[in-house]
Design a protein that fits this description.
Layout: E1 6-11, H1 25-31, E2 39-44, H2 50-56, E3 62-66, H3 84-89, E4 94-97, H4 100-104, H5 109-121, E5 125-130, H6 134-138, H7 142-153, E6 163-167, H8 181-199, E7 205-209, H9 217-220, E8 228-231, H10 238-249
Parallel strand pairs: 1-2, 1-8, 2-3, 3-4, 4-5, 5-6, 6-7, 7-8
Helix pairs in contact: 5-7, 7-8
Bound molecules: 2-phosphoglycolic acid.
2-phosphoglycolic acid binds next to strand 8.
Length: 250
């Protein structure tokens, strides 16, 4: 595991109600301890709970992010949508963009690029998700797909300081299956190499996401190049989430 800060991003997806915010109390407590000094926790609950989460985590070292945003950086006649200004206005510092579940629902690389630009304009940090499907993997298209997602998603973006890239193989999300550790290490290295080539920078952080849980974290943390984890199902249960964090830093 890297010696730098380690990110643990809790992606709650379409789960949670107003009382769920109380379940993170222990995580907040632990985040204040010396042991968690290098740990960066970011909760991404659904839009309906963003305000509650930012209030609950005020004056703590925990940040809050949205799970998506609209492509436009303005207010407008877009029923059912939320723009990055609105996300910022409730105290969020992050936004997930390009999650495969949103790509499946229609987000194109160009939409993702607009969303990222809109988020950066509001000085939000972006958690930019990339990943190949099982079919693409079987057809040996992984590198091609990841390069396309990166080059189109980050098209004409110069400042990468506020971007975290999350590599999430689609076949690993919610399936309980993670890549072989060697394969994953090679993949993260390739992503970092590609990013450093296009941005002429070496320090772009890359996270892993897909079925991270308290059982597989010990193998995953062996990968030095990983800067943290994007965690879905296991992050909704504070006991499991804390277990994952503890096992990573111990
Ligand atoms: P999972 O989800 O941990 O439940 O596989 C990860 C994600 O989709 O971000």
């Amino acid at each position: 595991m890297t010696n730098n800060n380690i990110y643990f991003i809790a992606n709650w997806k379409m789960h949670g109600n107003p009382t769920s915010v109380n379940s993170i109390r222990r995580v907040i407590g632990l985040s204040k301890t010396k042991k968690f000094r290098k740990v960066r926790i970011i909760y991404c609950p659904p839009y309906t709970l963003l305000d509650k989460f930012t209030n609950k985590t005020k004056r703590t070292r925990i940040f809050v992010g949205a799970q998506n945003c609209h492509t436009k950086n303005e207010y407008g006649a877009n029923t059912g949508s939320i723009n990055t200004k609105m996300i910022k206005s409730v105290g969020c510092k992050y936004v997930i963009i390009g999650h495969s579940e949103n790509r499946i629902e229609g987000d194109t690389d160009q939409d993702i690029n607009y969303k990222i630009k809109s988020a950066l304009k509001e000085k939000l940090n972006v958690i930019f998700c990339i990943g190949e499907t099982l079919d693409e993997k079987k057809k040996n298209k992984t590198q091609k797909i990841l390069k396309k997602q990166i080059s189109k998603g980050l098209y004409k973006i110069k400042n990468t300081k506020n971007i975290l890239v999350a590599y999430e193989p689609v076949w690993s999300i919610g399936t309980g299956i993670i890549p072989k550790i060697n394969d994953l290490q090679n993949q993260i290295k390739k992503i970092k190499l590609y990013l450093s080539k296009i941005f002429k920078k070496k320090d772009i952080r890359v996270l892993y996401g897909g079925s991270v849980n308290p059982k597989n974290i010990k193998s995953l943390k062996k990968i030095y190049e990983i800067n943290g984890f994007l965690i879905g199902a296991a992050s909704q249960n504070s006991k499991k989430f804390i277990d994952i964090i503890n096992k990573t830093i111990n």
